[in-house]
Amino acid sequence: MATKNYEGLKFIDGDIDNTLDSLTKEQALQIKINNTVFTISMRTPGEDVNLIRGMLHSEGIINDREFMPDFSFEKQEKLQAQTIVNVVIPMEKIGLAYSNSRSLLSVSSCGICGKTSLEDIDGGDNKIEDKNKIDINLIHQLFKQMQTQQHDFNQSGGTHAAAAFCINGNMLCSMEDIGRHNAVDKVIGKLIFENQLKEAKIITVSGRISYEIVIKCFKAGIPFLAAVSAPSSLAVDYAKELGITLFAFCRSSRATCYSNPQRTKTSNGNKI
């Protein structure tokens, strides 16, 4: 289970009641590469292999998306609820980003922690050139599909969700985590393991969009990104430059497209 029950006191209009609430678990995951510590990620336990594989892809640590490394897990009993995993990657499969990498603390809400320079986060000179178009009405259906898979959120109200879809709206996978970035990494990792990354054209996220999520989408080659909440200014700037069609404020039958709107269409024939 990704939740744990906690007792508390609830104060409502001067009244005090005992309550038992389900809260989302947050635990440490220490990741080693070839027995050398690479990072510590604060995450919701579960789907750890997908989280790690997606993270190593997004960070450029593995240079071959078809490669499946070996994972070995151990539990560190003296450190509360910490899991240690060693990922075995042959040198020929290690990307250039690893030589410039750092040991870092990757917390649930921050994808830039530990970056040493702006060059570390640059998407490069490439751009997604995708000719597919998406009907704006489909966006809302995607969020409804994702919501049906937010089982941990329904219990605790404390998780974020991300989901991947084909261009026709078929869901490929959906993941939850206490961290927005972790949820996206879990989705990308799952797609890699299932050999479905090329089929994925749309990612939806339950929270806001920062530039880090745009970068993860770009490195996965996914041209459409949609969120329930707001994007940051840097997220929009990156989406424009990297060829990602970014939707935000996707709720109550409305959505705002901030970049590359040429890929959108409407059922009533209105032109963009």
What can you see in these coordinates?
There is one protein chain. With 272 residues, the protein is of the alpha/beta class. It folds into 2 domains: 27-121, no CATH class; 134-265, Cytidine Deaminase, domain 2, CATH 3.40.140. Helices cover 23% and strands 33% of the residues. It has helices at residues 48-58, 136-147, 151-156, 180-193, 211-220, 233-242, and strands at 3-12, 15-24, 27-33, 36-43, 70-76, 82-88, 104-106, 134-135, 160-165, 171-177, 202-205, 224-227, 245-251, 254-259, 264-265. The strands form 4 sheets. The chain has a 6-stranded mixed beta sheet, with helices on both faces. A 5-stranded mixed beta sheet has the order 5-6-3-4-7, covered by helices on one side. A hairpin with a 2-residue loop joins strand 1 and strand 2 (15-24). Helix 1 crosses helix 4 and helix 5 runs parallel beside helix 6 (233-242). The longest helix is centred in the C-terminal third of the chain and has 14 residues, at 180-193. The model is unreliable at 103-121 (pLDDT under 50).
Instruction: Extract low-pLDDT stretches.
Output: 103-121
Main sheet strand line-up: 10-9-11-12-13-14
* Mean pLDDT metric: 84
CATH superfamily name of the largest domain?
Cytidine Deaminase, domain 2
**What is the subunit arrangement here?**
single chain
Q: Into which percent range does the helicity of residues fall?
A: 10-25%
Q: Give the class-level CATH name of the largest domain.
A: Alpha Beta
Morphology? flat
* Proportion of residues in β-strands: 25-35%
